[in-house]
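Usage

Read records sequentially. Each one opens with the input sequence:
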Amino acid sequence: MSSKQDWIASAGRALRGTLDIPGDKSVSHRAVMFAALADGTSTIDGFLEGEDTRATAAIFSRLGVQMETPSPSRRVVHGVGVDGLKAADGTLDCGNAGTGMRLLAGLLAAQRFDSVLIGDESLSKRPMRRVTGPLSTMGARIDTEEGGLPPLRIHGGQALSGIDYTLEVASAQVKSAVLLAGLYAEGETVVREPHPTRDYTERMLKAFGVDIAFSPGFARLRGGQRLKATDIAVPADFSSAAFFLVAASIIPGSELRLRAVGLNPRRTGLLQALRLMGADITEENASEHGGEPVADLVVRHAPLRGIEVPEALVPDMIDEFPALFVAAAAADGPTVVRGAAELRVKESDRLASMANGLRALGLRVDETPDGATIFPGPLQGGAVDSHGDHRIAMAFSIAGQLAAGEVRIGDVANVATSFPNYDGLATGAGFALRKG
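and closes with the structure output:
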């Protein structure tokens, strides 16, 4: 990981132009994994060239999968089949990627060989018990540090059995880990969710030829199936597009077109929340890429009003709350968030990080265990800490565009995990943002 670095954000100009947002991180992780497990050669276009996804690709190279990069954002993956992975020499480093670690736990629990998954300082503090629990029920043997924290020491050679499992907390990553283990398990694996989560894994397994039944909150597959190579076009990442949707909504005079953004219905809670607040966002050129709906998003400045965020939207916008907090800071009237306790165990405690940062810029934010109330007002200059969380850093780069003075954002190196060249794209569109 790069050494610590800061940004300084200040009032910029109206945002204008057409932007190509990098590829979807969740889809990129899965595309590499499933292409590696497939029989035959797959080409991935639009692969996110971020540190997280590169870490996942590097892990599969170390597990014996040949991969080529003929040009940036393209991968040619020579699949080895579900039974073709080989033991790596040494530990497997997931970097900052919670998605990578949790999905790999399910996949590697079914292999003949032992594996050890490690991560960076931030990932090493993230709880893994919710994924090791159901995998253990299937017959996996995974040791963790005290408190269920990484590293994950995975014992190979275990016979897995399919389970009918209801998640305690809705999580696409846990669901995906169980389904990946289910590919290797005896019998049928069923996953049920208290709230529907993103179905990237289900859609992509189907694209790779797996017989899988799924509907919102439910997925079922039988073990022993093989994957067939296929070509994947990765849509632009909605979570990355979210920062520009908010920025153009709250910076007067702005109009941006964001091209070919993935609009998975389990991902776009923020889009619905912003529209409830009065945002002017339209969809054009709708199509489908690899089973995923995509469209251009055209966003224009509009006065926003504070809302009570419907709890039904929360699972579908969990990664977008840092951006929403900034939209709330610029709205007319308070915004209330409930049912978002999951934000406390992301790359940072995002509720506390956003609340403290907005307070440092002069706003009142009342925190609760599972949410917050944001009271809007004029933003002042000041210093905020991103706590090494890429989404916190990008959110405050937007807040700085409306602040009366400079906003110093600390510890922004991790932005490269999900959005390489974010600062270059942002300044090209009109942000005032520089390295501190």
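Summary fields computed downstream for this record:
- The mean pLDDT is 95.
- Residues 31 and 255 are 32 Å apart (CA to CA).
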